[in-house]
Please model this.
Amino acid sequence: MQTTMNLLEKAIEIKSISEWTRKLGLSRQALYTARDRGNLSPAIAGSLAEEIGEDSKEWIVIAALESERESACKERMVRKWKNASQNMRNLYLPTARKVLMAWITHSQNRPSSNAIAHTPNIGKLINCVAV
Model:
């Protein structure tokens, strides 16, 4: 299962922690403290996910589960979330692949268009969907 530290790592590849702190309107130490603690709060995780184009709802749930103390209920919810998360990926990835490939084909068929080369993070998107 992903952790909010995975989300923070993705965000840091885009901007520095201090830049994210300013962009999200957090105190100077908020993200450094979260990194040292090993997890983000649900609110910060959701905001950060939204800013980098990730599913904020998924990251809010992950952050909420991380913040829970170990218990039988937490274990049950983690298992349930892992299964639900995998089922959603299995459901949406084939459709996302088709849409992406149609967009790429359409863009390549227009000689005046250089849309693929000018689309930020298109390589990451293609790698994510082409799994």
User: Anything to note?
Assistant: Helices lie at 4-14, 17-24, 30-37, 42-51, 56-67, 72-108, 115-118, 122-129. Residues 112-116 have pLDDT under 50 and may be disordered. DSSP finds eight helices and no strands in the chain. Residues 1-67 form one domain.
